[in-house]
Amino acid sequence: MSDTTLKTPLKVAILGAKGYPYVYGGYDTLVKELGERLVKRGVEVRVYCHRALFPKKPPMVNGIKLFYTPAIETKSLTQLSHSFISMMHACLSDVDVIFVVNSGNGPYGLISKIFRKPTAINVDGLEWLRPKWRGLGSRYFKFASRLATKFYDRIVTDSDEMQRIYQEMFKADSTVIAYGANPANHSNPELLKKWNLKPNEYYLIVGRLVQDNNADLILGGFQKSSTDKKLVIVGDVPFEDEFANKLKNIKDERVLFTGYVKDTEELKSLYNLSYAYFHGHEYGGTNPAMLKALGYGCAILALDTVFNREMLQDGKHGIFFQKDFDAVKDCIHKVEQLPEKMETLRNTARSGLTARYNWDNVTEAYLQLFLELKKS
């Protein structure tokens, strides 16, 4: 896919994530990778940042204009209030297109409609099914996702399966644009000494310690196994949480919680030198942690979901397990009898990053979308 050269100015506002260059989750990664590439193609990019997360507030970083908007600082209202204020500011500005992430921001498309600002929204996963949003939260996300399909000019889904679900549930068409990956062919075994680890002697989990990522399922199955390898769990939650605390209080000398690993080289080495990477994410579409696992050359063991099957090409680039402790245990015992199979998966993992997971191609797809919106 060739890069588009802009003949006329294009101003794009991005909101709904934590900001730039803050990188904590998938949306923040999207903002960073997409924003930086759009700037190089001549787009004026404005990113709305969550004011409380940025002690220093430079007006511009790497050519991206930054706006620091406030929020009501409570667990349930922080993101929504920040997006509301950001949307109002963007609609009152001279931007050509507003790009929003997170289906929870669905109702705010009404604001952009009133101001006649062209908009697109990346709706991500099935938020209403996530255990943390039981009850009112679940109903809100389903309601917000439906409104997103009514108010925004274009809906972006990140996988074919998510596109199908939005068509079936909401009778809404969407454009599929996946997340990208940054593959790497090298790692440093010396960096593992920080945790007293050895290459190929541990399994790896990377992700937030929330219920829908199923670290408890994998950990429970691992504890039932007889493996002498370790289980390394990278990640945490940025708030006090009963589920995360219960996991971290488990006593097993084979289990290691690292917390967040912010050093890119350390994280890359943890991925690349693992015996296998466990992926328990259940409700998303294209998952950034899975893309890292492919790009860093991991043998992948994944929960059997339609989204994970799509990403791993129905088993070409991974092995699936069911949502059951014994299934995890049996999977561990099985793969430890298949070292040649695991080595093959590691050697071929990067070939699973098809053109749709290339950040330059992702950027080109978004740029075409924004140009179409500007003309509409």
Automatic annotation (TrEMBL):
Pfam families per record: Glyco_transf_4 (PF13439), Glycos_transf_1 (PF00534)
Domain Glycosyltransferase subfamily 4-like N-terminal: 24-182
Top-level division of the source organism's lineage: Bacteria
Keywords: Glycosyltransferase, Transferase
Residues spanning the membrane: none
GO function term, MF aspect, one: glycosyltransferase activity
EC number: 2.4.1.-
Lineage: Bacteria, Pseudomonadati, Bacteroidota, Cytophagia, Cytophagales
Protein's name in the database: Alpha-D-GlcNAc alpha-1,2-L-rhamnosyltransferase
Organism whose genome encodes this protein: Indibacter alkaliphilus (strain CCUG 57479 / KCTC 22604 / LW1)
The UniProt record lists the keyword DNA damage: no
Glycosyl transferase family domain boundaries: 192-350
Alphabetical list of InterPro entries matching this protein: Glyco_trans_1, Glyco_trans_4-like_N
